[in-house]
Amino acid sequence: MRLAGKVAVVTGGGSGIGRGIALCLAREGANLAIPDLQEASAASVAQEVRALGRAAIGLRCDVTREADIRASLDRIRTDLGRIDIVVNNAGIASPPGMPFTRNTEEDWDQAFDVNVKSVFLMCKAIAPDFIERRAGRIINIASIAGPLASLTMPPYSVAKGGVIILTRIVAKELAPHGVTVNAICPGILWTGFWRDLAQDIAENNPAFRGMTARQVFEKRVAQIVPMGCEQTPEDIGWAAVFLASDEARCITGQSLFVDGGAVM
Ligand SMILES: NC(=O)c1ccc[n+]([C@@H]2O[C@H](COP(=O)([O-])OP(=O)(O)OC[C@H]3O[C@@H](n4cnc5c(N)ncnc54)[C@H](O)[C@@H]3O)[C@@H](O)[C@H]2O)c1
């Protein structure tokens, strides 16, 4: 119960990694708000959180729109009373490159809007509240694609590299105010994100022809993860619990890789 009584916001918490983070935070005592583009998914995870005995709301929110973010934060404060922890998790893969000239201007704009502009907008919206209370935790979900140059998804890779630098910028500015800001870099997880990506690779990359999406994914895990294991949403969730807890009070500006050693 390291987070008893805290209120956490997990963007994109309606599925995959965000759902795992929301449930881990709830198991440690936090109440949850889940802003997601998919309102029904957000509502369903909120229901799972309530079944654990916590308060929870799901909201429809497009994190690329400042007005949506501000309206969501207002409603969360009204319904749950306060905000202590923000997890910027919502993100999308970009259409495959290889070569990068396959990507369009729209691919780059969308990858930046959803994966990195959204983090800026949320940090901007929550900062005055956290500064005033001299407390607060921000956790940004980046990716191993940030430090690794991902040929499969160039715009995504650059956007996630941006999330890592943005994390340090906001961490530096908020450090004197008692607010910590960190990133978690997940490795490779079998969520909707990778299912779609693996399907595309199976259909379009000659090196993987004839394989199922799951076989493509498993081959990728074997190729890049020294520990040989795929990660789970709970692996990311427990890292978020740690960064949100009192035990992590002096950790800020860091990127924690939960990747079975992939980047190492
Ligand atoms: N799956 C992986 O292997 C992996 C690896 C590294 C990093 N990540 C990152 O983890 C995060 C979660 O990914 P996931 O694997 O759970 O993917 P997912 O597709 O399962 O879930 C993403 C969630 O974000 C929501 N979302 C998308 N666009 C949104 C928007 N504009 N506004 C609000 N919500 C929006 C979706 O509705 C969905 O619920 C992303 O930031 C992703 O880049 C994933």
Account of the protein in words:
The chain has 264 residues and is α/β, with parallel strands linked by helices. It has a single domain, classed as Rossmann fold. Helices cover 48% and strands 13% of the residues. It has 8 helices and 7 strands; from the N terminus they run E-H-E-H-E-H-E-H-E-H-E-H-H-H-E. It has helices spanning 16-27, 39-51, 66-80, 105-133, 154-174, 192-204, 213-224, 233-244; strands spanning 7-10, 31-36, 56-60, 85-88, 137-141, 180-186, 255-258. The protein is globular. The two termini are 32 Å apart. The structure holds nicotinamide-adenine-dinucleotide. Nicotinamide-adenine-dinucleotide is lined by residues 11-12, 14-18, 36-38, 41, 61-64, 89-92, 114, 141, 143, 186, 188-189, 191-194.
Quick gist of this model?
The chain has 264 residues and is α/β, with parallel strands linked by helices. It has helices spanning 16-27, 39-51, 66-80, 105-133, 154-174, 192-204, 213-224, 233-244, and strands at 7-10, 31-36, 56-60, 85-88, 137-141, 180-186, 255-258. The mean pLDDT is 97.
